[in-house]
C-alpha cells in the first residue's frame, strides 16, 4: 500500500495555510480540521505552527487510523475524534477546548474513499454500492436504491444531483429492482447509460456523475451536516479566529455562502440611527466570492478542478 502522504495531495494547501496563519500564530492556538481525511492539511498546519494544538474530526474510522499514523510525530499536540463535522461544539466541549483560533473544512468525498474500490464511491470501477463515509453505520446506497419509494428517489436525484432525467432513471431503477436488487456500481452505471437520453449524455461529464453524487449526499446526510457545521464553526471561533471552507459542488457552496453572508452583515433595520454592538457583523469575509484553483494546481491535482474556497474572520465577540 502506498504511504498515506502519497495517496493524497491536499487541495489549495498554501492558500489555506496563508488564510489561517494570522490566527494560528496566537499563543496556545487551537485549530479544528473538521474533515481530517488522510491528514494532509493537518500535517502542514502542525509543521508550520510548532505550538499549535489540532483537533481532527472524521466520520471514517479508516481515515482516522491512517491520519493518526501520518501525524504521529505531533502526537502530543493532536486530538483525533470519530465524529461528523457538525458535532464540532460537542467535541470541543468534551475536550475542554475553545473558543478556537481556526476551523478548516474540506468538504465532499475524500481521496481515501474515492480510491478504495470496496467503498463504492467511484462510478469508474466495479464495487459494491455502499458510499457510506462511516461504513459502520446507516443505510448504504444500495439500500436507498432498492427500498426508497419512487417519489423519494426522484427527489434525491433532483435535489442532490440536479439530475434532469431523474424520473426516467427512477423508472428504470424500479423496473430493475423488481427483477433483482441493484448491488454494484457497474449495474447502476449500465442502467444509467441506458436511461439517460443521448443528448444529455453529450454534456455534463459522465452520465453517472450526478446520480452517484446524489446517492452519496443522501446516504451521508451531507447537506444537513454542512448546514449545521458552518454556523457551529462560526460560533466556535475566538475573536479574530478564522474559518476556511472548501466546497466541490454548487449545493455545498450555496450553504456556505449563505451562512457566511448572513453572519457578515449588519442585523439592525436600515433606519436605525445608531448601531448597537450586537447589530454589528460577526464576520469579515476574507475572499471575494469563491476562489478556485489555478491551472497549474488543477494540472498537478485534478481533484482541485471543482474546488470553491471561502474564508472569513470573526470580528465581533459572541453576544
How is this fold's topology laid out?
Elements: H1 4-7, H2 13-24, E1 30-33, H3 40-48, E2 53-58, H4 61-70, E3 78-82, H5 88-95, E4 100-106, H6 111-115, H7 141-147, H8 150-161, H9 166-179, H10 185-195, H11 198-201, H12 209-220, H13 222-236, E5 237-247, H14 250-263, E6 283-285, H15 295-300, E7 308-314
Parallel strand pairs: 1-2, 1-4, 2-3, 4-5
Antiparallel strand pairs: 5-7, 6-7
Helix pairs in contact: 8-9, 8-12, 9-10, 13-14
Task: Provide a quick synopsis of the model.
With 319 residues, the protein is an alpha/beta fold. Helix content is 45%, strand content 13%. Helix 8 crosses helix 12 and helix 13 (222-236) packs parallel to helix 14.
Largest sheet: 7 strands, mixed
If you compute it from the alpha carbons, what radius of gyration comes out, rounded to the nearest whole angstrom? 21 Å
Give, in order, the helices and strands: HHEHEHEHEHHHHHHHHEHEHE
The secondary-structure class comes to alpha/beta
**How far apart are the termini?**
50 Å
Summed over residues and divided by their number, the pLDDT gives a mean of: 90
The low-pLDDT segments are: none
| Percent in strands | 5-15%
**Fraction in helix:** 40-55%
- The total of helices stands at 15
Shape: globular
Strand order of the largest sheet: 3-2-1-4-5-7-6
The total count of strands amounts to 7
Amino acid at each position: 500500500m502506498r504511504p498515506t502522504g502519497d495517496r493524497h495531495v491536499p487541495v489549495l494547501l498554501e492558500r489555506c495555510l496563508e488564510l489561517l496563519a494570522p490566527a494560528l500564530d496566537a499563543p496556545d492556538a487551537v485549530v479544528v480540521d473538521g474533515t481530517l481525511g488522510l491528514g494532509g492539511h493537518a500535517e502542514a498546519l502542525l509543521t508550520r505552527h510548532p505550538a499549535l494544538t489540532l483537533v481532527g474530526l472524521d466520520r471514517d474510522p479508516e481515515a482516522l487510523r491512517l491520519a493518526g499514523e501520518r501525524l504521529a510525530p505531533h502526537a502530543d499536540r493532536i486530538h483525533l475524534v470519530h465524529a461528523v463535522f457538525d458535532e464540532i461544539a460537542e467535541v470541543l466541549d468534551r475536550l475542554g477546548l475553545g473558543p478556537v483560533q481556526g476551523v478548516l473544512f474540506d468538504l465532499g468525498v475524500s481521496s481515501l474513499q474515492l480510491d478504495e474500490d470496496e467503498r463504492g464511491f467511484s462510478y469508474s470501477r466495479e464495487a459494491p454500492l455502499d458510499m457510506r463515509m462511516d461504513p459502520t453505520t446507516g443505510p448504504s446506497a444500495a439500500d436507498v436504491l432498492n427500498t426508497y419509494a419512487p417519489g423519494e428517489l426522484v427527489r434525491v436525484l433532483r435535489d442532490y444531483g440536479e439530475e434532469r432525467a431523474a424520473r426516467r432513471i427512477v423508472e428504470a431503477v424500479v423496473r430493475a429492482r423488481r427483477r433483482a436488487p441493484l448491488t454494484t456500481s457497474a449495474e447502476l452505471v449500465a442502467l444509467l447509460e441506458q436511461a439517460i437520453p443521448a443528448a444529455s449524455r453529450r454534456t455534463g461529464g459522465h452520465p453517472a456523475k450526478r446520480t452517484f453524487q446524489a446517492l452519496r449526499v443522501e446516504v451521508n446526510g451531507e447537506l444537513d451536516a454542512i448546514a449545521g457545521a458552518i454556523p457551529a464553526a462560526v460560533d466556535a471561533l475566538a475573536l479574530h479566529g478564522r474559518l476556511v471552507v472548501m466546497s466541490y459542488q454548487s449545493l455545498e457552496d450555496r450553504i456556505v455562502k449563505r451562512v457566511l453572508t448572513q453572519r457578515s452583515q449588519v442585523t439592525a433595520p436600515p433606519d436605525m440611527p445608531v448601531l448597537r454592538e450586537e447589530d454589528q457583523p460577526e464576520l469579515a469575509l476574507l475572499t471575494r466570492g469563491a476562489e478556485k484553483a489555478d491551472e497549474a494546481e488543477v494540472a498537478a491535482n485534478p481533484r482541485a478542478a471543482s474546488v470553491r474556497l471561502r474564508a472569513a474572520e470573526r470580528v465581533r465577540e459572541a453576544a
